[in-house]
Write a structure and sequence with these properties.
Layout (H helix, E strand, L loop, with lengths): L6 H12 L5 H8 L3 H11 L2 H11 L32
């Protein structure tokens, strides 16, 4: 993996990799990481048991590869999946 990511970017890549509807191609477009790079990053930054669980989850998952997706899927994520702040405390 040649791309240098800061902690926030690395955290976002890990989050995107866990998301069912975010294809590896979206991660490549945003961060320059190909699927093998994402696998290496996950192996380095997850506990071994979490990495194995993630690999089992994404292996063969159609939604993780844009070329295997249905043409009806036009977005990579659900609008409600991201955490949002609820305003400032008064």
């Amino acid at each position: 993996m040649r791309v240098q990511l800061n902690e926030v970017e690395r955290s976002r890549v890990i989050e995107m990799a866990w998301e069912d509807r975010t294809p590896f191609e979206a991660i490549a477009r945003l961060f320059g990481l190909r699927e093998p790079d994402v696998i290496d990053l996950m192996r380095l930054h997850l506990k071994p048991s979490s990495f194995r669980l993630w690999r089992k989850r994404v292996t063969g998952r159609v939604t993780k590869h844009a070329s295997l997706r249905s043409v009806e899927v036009m977005r990579a994520y659900c609008p409600t999946q991201y955490k949002q702040s609820h305003g400032t405390k008064r």
